[in-house]
Specification:
Blueprint (H helix, E strand, L loop, with lengths): L2 E5 L7 H13 L3 E3 L13 E3 L5 H7 L2 H11 L11 E5 L13 E6 L8 H5 L6 H13 L8 E4 L2 H10 L7 E3 L20 E4 L8 H11 L3 E4 L5 H7 L4 E5 L3 H10 L2 E4 L8 H8 L4 E4 L4 H4 L6 E4 L3 H14 L5 H7 L5 H18 L24
Parallel strand pairs: 1-2, 1-4, 2-3, 4-5, 5-6, 6-7, 8-9, 8-11, 9-10, 11-12, 12-13
Helix pairs in contact: 1-14, 7-12
Amino acid sequence: MKIAIAHEHYPQRGGGEMVSDELARTFDAPVYAGFVNRDATAPDVELHDLFGDGVLGQLIRRSAFIRDAFYQFAWTDVVELRDFDVIVTSGNNPGWFVPRDTQTVVSYVHSPQRTPYDMWADSEETHGLAKHIYTKAARTLHPEGKYADRLVANSDLVKRRIVRYWDVDADDVDVVYPPIDVEGWSRHDDETSDYVVTWSRMFDNKNIDEIVRACNRTGTKLIVGGDGPERERLEEIAGPTVEFRGFVEWDELCRLVSGAKATLFAADNEDFGMVPVESMAAGTPVIGVREGFTRHQIIDGVNGVLFDRGVDNLVDAIERFESEGVTATEHDIERFAQQFSVERFRRQMRSIVNEAVEDSQIETSVEPPLPTRRLAADGGDEQ
């Protein structure tokens, strides 16, 4: 059985790209992706850049709107995928691919499009005409998993979005949490010290500014890992207790998180959120925002502390953690994270793909011809 992974694109190395890579390892399959930044790829994964980085590609990649419009046509005609028995898609735009009758498609959904759906509902501003036109087009034109034999959501929250926004029956959506390398983290990597940590790509939706401002006010030592367009602004508002490490190598990150007394996490309405689970795999509790799937990863007062959005509330949460701590031990927190392991992901995805292949086989109502008795040359029955 020939399997291929079709991933949206590799602009940078984030959660979606890690899932795509693990799907490739799970099925020993190549990955076919839209525009690819080679710095975001894994060396052990066979990756094919479908649309290239020529002059036209460079122009298309500059605008998410133009890129997504281009994908509507480009993904439908990916001839490289037509010789595979099974296509596992990752991200929404590969859903434009039109499969053969004999192909099985399993769609791993990180989330339905966010701008026209949950982010639209969460916005406190009045939307202008241009946004209304864009979101109406996005809701109307997007494939919404219509060609998939099985839909797989990366969290229970995303499953609810699929059911609500794509009008899919809940029984038709499986949930498989993303693969976290929980074995690569350990509470024994370093002794717990008097600092908190946060790490991610530095984009505005990660709300690291709220974390920095809260630690400025509490005087808490904060170590920030990661890089991105927000870094310069964040360094400008940081007080003397905040340290920026930039890109942190894996071994150093493991020690850094293991040695922290807590991880701070304030990203907007996360579909799943890998950082809290990675922190817990290192035995480190999480002070996280009460939004998205984060609110389900953290049991308030047990393996972390939840806070409502806002710097004042985060300050209160830090002070509460400092005075009360959490009830779970480092071992308990580490064990909690094991349910999100790579092995669990591989086992569940293999099972779903095998079931999808079996279920997609056509059972006809055609009745086979009844056996008949032929006449021998002498007119008698031929035995």
